């Protein structure tokens, strides 16, 4: 077998198989090294697997960045109790497309990661909740799951280990809020995807009221590599508090948009200049949204200084989120970005908490009034005030996710908003 | 009111779906997807049938249908087209494409064409920003669009 068909564990943790043609076929994945770790893990004490994941410092890659090992630590150790492992593949944060890219080329890395994680956690059943729009990807996953069953990697008494694990691909139907873990649980229960009050956290009381772990695609897909190469090797990448590599989805005004696996802590400007081959048409950088639409925007000045890890981005006033970077060049209008963001969150609010249901609508109305030339400069303060009152007052983070980018734009681009309101008034 | 029921193949699929879940309500979304694949939209007759079949009150089913953008409580068309209008796609003309398509085919958003061929839906981020602007035609992604190429792709549909 040629070296080109071997996995590259040296340079990648998540995309280590992505260069291999047709790696979505089980045999090809397996020939390259896939499912080796699953087999090995069945010989280990489940607690050892949890320990290794905890020691790696892996943090939840869906957006919140909560340490995976700590989340797993809250979970019941009773292997006979009915418990669930849910994979969050609802990827819907605007700007994010990394999970899609990971899955559509290599579905088996997730299946292997889920089997190992399920064995460590002692869950008997797992679901991959994939957003409804990803129909083709759901079909690719279903085929992978079916093939894994045929091979005896899923089902009863897997490879004679005595461990049973059923895995099902479950399609969503178009709702951003189902990416929130308790919204996802409600949706899986066959309800509206409305988030639930925490505590109790899903690890204690989740799907159907039973203990449930919800992890992002990228989080679970990192597990086989961590088991292969070890927590210490994983920590060689990234920073002390943000170890490992991360998938970044980069779109907007760059020459080469796409998904890149890079060590956490990489300077944002290096991502743009080196990996994305710079800003398109030689234009000047104006701003960057560093972590999906809910992350406050950075001006070019800050974008040139920031490092892509949880801590440095937070310290500069934004968040890493799902690692979705949207690059804006000098030709872009910031009020446009604000309008599209506000429309989105208004549309996606599930409506159960007043500050979010009303606040997202008010903010959109205030902006659209200004767009019609009927605004006044004090509307900026009004927007800021509404946004402030939406923060930290609701069941889930959608309200904050709408408020934060609004306040971020006001802070970073107030001058441009003021000119916009004035111009719209004049042109009325 | 014309009665709806699953065809033979889907009856089998329905039974199989139930085995994937520990309670019947959890199977509701996959069952709705299945019904919509067969009937193209979730009419009152479809809802009545599923309610009877699964023992879930119609109001609970209608609640779910109304919550999700991809479940339709009104007729769609042979081709369902979803145009992304979120940040990156809008930066590259996604909104103009959405409006341009509606104008070209003289349609309204989320109303089927009279010949039953096209149904256009403005969508939030489709998760394919690297190919902005993009749209989905019957579950298939099409990226790097212009209004011209978008119209061409729709014109050749059956």
Please provide a written account of the structure.
The complex is a heterodimer of chains A (428) and B (158). With 428 residues, chain A is an alpha/beta fold. Chain A folds into three domains: 3-235, 3-Layer(aba) Sandwich (Rossmann fold), CATH 3.40.50; 245-329, Roll (Ubiquitin-like (UB roll)); 334-426, Up-down Bundle (de novo design (two linked rop proteins)). Chain A has helices at 26-31, 36-41, 46-56, 68-73, 98-105, 107-121, 135-150, 181-188, 217-229, 231-235, 268-275, 300-303, 310-315, 334-348, 354-371, 379-389, 398-426; strands at residues 84-89, 125-130, 166-171, 212-216, 245-252, 258-263, 266-267, 285-289, 298-299, 307-308, 324-329. In chain A, the strands form three sheets. Chain A has a five-stranded mixed beta sheet. A four-stranded parallel beta sheet of chain A has the order 3-2-1-4, with helices on both faces. The longest helix of chain A has 29 residues, at 398-426. Chain A starts with 25 loop residues before the first helix and ends with a helix. The model of chain A has no long low-confidence stretch (mean pLDDT 97). The two termini of chain B are 28 Å apart. Chain B has helices spanning 8-18, 28-39, 44-54, 58-67, 87-91, 94-104, 147-155, and strands at 79-84, 118-123, 135-137, 140-142. The radius of gyration of chain B is 17 Å and the shape is elongated. Chain B has two domains: 8-67; 79-155, Glutaredoxin (3-Layer(aba) Sandwich), CATH 3.40.30. In chain B, a hairpin with a 2-residue loop joins strand 3 (135-137) and strand 4. Chain B is α+β, with helices and mostly antiparallel strands and 158 residues long. At the A-B interface, strand 3, strand 5, strand 11 and helix 14 of A face helix 2, helix 4 and helix 5 of B.
Task: Give a summary of the structure in a few sentences.
The complex is a heterodimer of chains A (428) and B (158). Chain A is an alpha/beta fold and 428 residues long.
């Amino acid at each position: 077998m040629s070296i080109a068909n071997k996995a590259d564990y040296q340079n990648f943790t998540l995309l280590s198989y992505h260069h291999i043609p047709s790696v979505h076929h089980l045999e090809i994945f397996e020939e390259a090294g896939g499912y080796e770790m699953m087999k090995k893990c069945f010989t280990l004490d489940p607690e050892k697997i949890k320990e290794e994941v905890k020691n790696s410092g892996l943090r939840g890659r869906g957006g919140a960045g909560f340490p995976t090992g700590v989340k797993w630590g809250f979970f019941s150790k009773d292997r006979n109790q009915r418990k669930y492992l849910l994979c969050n593949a609802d990827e819907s944060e605007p700007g994010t497309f990394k999970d899609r890219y990971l899955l559509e080329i290599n579905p088996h890395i997730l299946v292997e990661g889920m089997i190992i994680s399920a064995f460590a956690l002692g869950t008997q059943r797992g679901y991959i909740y994939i957003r409804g729009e990803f129909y083709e990807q759901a079909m690719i996953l279903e085929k992978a799951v079916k093939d894994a069953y045929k091979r005896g990697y899923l089902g009863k008494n897997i490879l004679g280990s005595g461990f049973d694990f059923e895995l099902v691909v479950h399609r969503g139907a178009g709702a951003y809020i189902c990416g929130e873990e308790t919204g996802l649980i409600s949706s899986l229960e066959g309800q509206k995807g409305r988030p639930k009050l925490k505590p109790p956290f899903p690890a204690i009381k989740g799907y159907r009221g039973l203990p449930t772990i919800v992890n992002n695609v990228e989080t679970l897909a990192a597990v086989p590599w961590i088991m292969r190469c070890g927590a210490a090797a994983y920590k060689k990448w990234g920073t002390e508090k943000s170890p490992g590599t991360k998938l970044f989805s980069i779109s907007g005004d760059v020459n080469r948009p796409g998904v890149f696996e890079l060590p956490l802590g990489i300077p944002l400007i290096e991502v743009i200049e080196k990996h994305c081959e710079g800003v398109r048409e030689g234009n000047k950088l104006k701003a960057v949204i560093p972590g999906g639409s809910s992350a406050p925007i950075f001006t070019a000045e800050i974008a040139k200084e920031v490092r892509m890890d949880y801590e440095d981005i937070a310290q500069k006033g934004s968040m890493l989120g799902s690692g979705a970077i949207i690059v804006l060049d000098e030709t872009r209008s910031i009020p446009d970005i604000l309008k599209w963001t506000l429309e989105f969150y208004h549309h996606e609010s599930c409506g159960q908490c007043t500050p979010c249901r009303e606040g997202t609508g008010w903010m959109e109305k205030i902006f659209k009034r200004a767009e019609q030339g009927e605004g006044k400069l004090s509307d900026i303060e009004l927007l800021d005030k509404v946004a402030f009152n939406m923060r930290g007052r609701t069941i889930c983070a959608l309200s904050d996710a709408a408020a934060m980018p609004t306040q971020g734009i006001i802070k970073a681009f107030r001058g441009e908003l003021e000119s916009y309101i004035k111009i719209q008034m004049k042109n009325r | 009111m014309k009665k709806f029921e699953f065809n033979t193949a889907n009856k089998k699929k329905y039974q199989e779906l139930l085995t994937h879940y520990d309670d019947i309500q959890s199977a509701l979304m996959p069952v709705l997807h299945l019904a919509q694949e067969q009937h193209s939209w979730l009419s009152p007759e479809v809802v009545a049938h599923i309610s009877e079949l699964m023992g879930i009150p119609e109001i609970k089913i209608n609640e779910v249908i109304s919550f999700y953008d991809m479940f339709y409580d009104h007729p769609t068309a042979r081709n369902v087209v979803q145009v992304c209008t979120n940040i990156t796609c809008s930066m590259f003309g996604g909104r103009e494409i959405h409006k341009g398509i509606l104008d070209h085919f003289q349609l309204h958003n989320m109303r089927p064409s009279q010949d039953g061929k096209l149904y256009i839906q403005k969508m939030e981020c489709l998760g394919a920003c690297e190919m902005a602007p993009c749209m989905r035609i019957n579950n298939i992604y099409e990226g790097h669009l212009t209004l011209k190429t978008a119209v061409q792709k729709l014109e050749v549909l059956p």
